[in-house]
């Protein structure tokens, strides 16, 4: 019995040392074995989707956003096509692609091991970081193609520099990313599309979204043996959409952020008081069991949290708070509650908590003047679980309408929003505007025309509410929330 205990303890100790050890101390045969096992053990959730619009003759509709002069025109046409035609979505699972040999995963593993083995990295960074941030053959949900040979040719002049101990890794990343920036540009029109291009397609087009550009940068650096991944804020709390950027692991074990294929680390946009990030997640290849709710039907899990390869790094970027809530009325058919932020005219779910009786706890939430709404998510639909509240540092303020209390307003600014810079929209004389207020759903208080001076004088508005203004004159996707105090607007 004692002999068996000794063997088990020895195996556990060996596994622990193996996991944290620098790459160069692990025998070559074991490197390949563990790398292949790691890929297949975590492959189940990985793949890509291809979505096609189909016309009445069952033919695919060709659409490119770059044929349009600007993003609004591209998006308007794209939305119109989606509304008039049906779509077909095809899932391409990576495990099946491996079996078909359409992607040679064995060759990829051997090439990754070779790149890493020839890098000074292998003496400094653990095998675990190699498996998680160098070995993976994909960066996100892009189409799966054989890209290594093309990227090796593209960055041939850097290949031997990476292998040189005397070269500064930070300078190398700057140089590689600078070359990428000469080959591709960020183009907002790329958001008006259904599919994420593969890295070679992004290079061929020469433009893309932050998502496709960061995926290209990730695979380029990994091809050269540099540990790289993607950090993202899925939904901002101060504007529509979200954002992705890259991070690489420096020789002193620090994650360094940069805008892949755009700007280098020294030009990375800081998270200042104007930028509101409720959550920031880092992409991993392996499953993270605590990222998604468990013991619940898939229909009761928001789409973003059906992925299992994310870790929370919010506190690495912004000030955070732990939030505890009392949930008064809990439906019988749910064990979870979520926090959401207002983004693109909707409440977007950004975090979750398993209910402990009527208590919910949310850790590491961005607290930079951010409004959250607690919601349930049942059978694909959101239902308010409480009142919206503002988190400003350690202070929490709840928005709750005063019963039978009303105010009159005199508003001239109809939006204060961020679109690469802060912008102000003012009412247009004679144009029609609606004042919406939140009362477990968005309700219209009043619809009026702006007066000759561009002012909006809404009457009998429910007091102490949370509001936003909509109009055919505005880009309503960008509309932001505000409160009213003594006639003054506070924007969120």
Automatic annotation (TrEMBL):
Keywords for the protein's UniProt record, in alphabetical order: Membrane, Transmembrane, Transmembrane helix
Highest taxon above the source species: Bacteria
Transmembrane stretches, start-end: 6-26
Domain Transglutaminase-like: 171-259
Protein name in the entry: Transglutaminase-like domain-containing protein
Lineage: Bacteria, Pseudomonadati, Bacteroidota, Saprospiria, Saprospirales
């Amino acid at each position: 019995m004692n002999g068996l205990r000794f063997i088990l303890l020895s195996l556990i100790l060996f596994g622990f040392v193996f996991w944290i050890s620098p790459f160069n101390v692990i025998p070559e045969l074991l490197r390949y074995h563990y790398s292949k096992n790691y890929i297949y053990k975590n492959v189940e959730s990985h793949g890509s989707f291809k979505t096609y619009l189909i016309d009445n003759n069952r033919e695919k509709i060709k659409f490119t956003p770059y044929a349009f002069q600007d993003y609004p025109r591209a998006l308007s046409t794209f939305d119109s096509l989606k509304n008039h035609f049906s779509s077909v979505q095809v899932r391409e699972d990576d495990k099946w692609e491996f079996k078909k040999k359409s992607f040679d995963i064995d060759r990829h593993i051997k090439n990754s091991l070779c790149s890493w083995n020839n890098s000074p990295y292998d003496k400094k960074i653990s095998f675990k970081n190699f498996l998680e941030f160098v070995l993976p053959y994909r960066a996100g949900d892009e189409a799966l193609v054989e890209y290594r040979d093309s990227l090796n040719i593209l960055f041939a002049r850097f290949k031997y520099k990476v292998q040189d101990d005397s070269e500064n890794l930070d300078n190398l990343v700057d140089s590689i990313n600078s070359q990428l920036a000469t080959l591709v540009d960020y183009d907002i029109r790329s958001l008006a599309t259904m599919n994420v291009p593969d890295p070679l397609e992004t290079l061929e087009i020469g433009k893309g979204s932050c998502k496709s550009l960061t995926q290209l940068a990730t695979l380029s650096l990994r091809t050269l043996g540099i540990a790289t991944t993607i950090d993202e804020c899925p939904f901002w709390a101060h504007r529509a959409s979200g954002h992705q950027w890259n991070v690489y692991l420096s020789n002193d074990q620090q994650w360094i952020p940069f805008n892949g294929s755009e700007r280098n680390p020294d030009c990375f946009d800081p998270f200042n008081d104007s930028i509101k990030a409720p959550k920031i997640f880092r992409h991993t290849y392996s499953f993270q069991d605590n990222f998604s709710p468990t013991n619940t039907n898939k229909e009761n899990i928001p789409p973003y949290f059906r992925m299992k390869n994310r870790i929370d790094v919010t506190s690495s970027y912004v000030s955070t708070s732990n939030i505890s809530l009392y949930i008064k009325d809990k439906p019988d058919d749910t064990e979870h509650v979520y926090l959401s932020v207002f983004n693109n005219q909707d409440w977007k779910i950004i975090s979750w908590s398993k209910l402990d009786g009527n208590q919910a706890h949310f850790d590491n939430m961005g607290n930079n003047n951010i409004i959250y709404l607690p919601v349930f998510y049942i059978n694909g639909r959101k239902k308010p679980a409480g009142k919206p509240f503002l988190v400003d540092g350690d202070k929490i303020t709840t928005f709750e309408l005063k019963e039978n209390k009303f105010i009159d307003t005199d508003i001239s600014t109809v939006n204060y929003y961020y679109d690469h810079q802060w912008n102000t929209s003012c009412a247009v004389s004679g144009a029609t505007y609606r004042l919406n207020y939140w009362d477990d759903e968005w309700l219209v208080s009043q619809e009026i025309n702006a007066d000759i001076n561009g002012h909006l004088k809404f009457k009998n508005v429910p007091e102490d509410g949370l509001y936003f203004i909509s109009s055919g004159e505005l880009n309503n996707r960008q509309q932001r929330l505000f409160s009213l105090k003594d006639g003054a607007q506070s924007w969120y």
